Amino acid sequence: KKALEREEEAGLKSKGEKKLTKFQMQQELEKNKSKPKPKASNVVSVEKQNHDLMKENTNKKDADVDATGLNEAVSQLERVNFKEDPNEEQHPERRMKAAHKAYEEKMMPILKADNPGLKRSQLKEMCWKEWQKSPENPIVQEAMKRHAAMK
Fold this sequence. Notes:
single chain; mainly alpha; 7 helices; about 60% helix; flat
């Protein structure tokens, strides 16, 4: 056991790096500078960088609105964002909480009658799962509208 410890300590001592003086470090730096460094494949050349910087900005070409004043911009945006159906709801998820509560109040007595041995939390979980597929769910209603429009 002691022999193994001595061998290990001897190995650690011999592997340690020697201290270098400033002069030795400077000589080593000069040697490294004189050696040509291989070019890395992932380094981008200056010409390529300049070429990429000089490319034309294509973001403005795709813009639907080309206005110089505030009034012009507003009028053009109104034309771009005009919908066929002004009554179409943009955020059905805002109605979801109230709609779910109404659905839950309607369905809880039915679920309780069908499953008398279940806890309230289990009944609420069942109600939530049914709500996800229910046509009373505003998200499902929107999906059904989109599906019908596609056909």
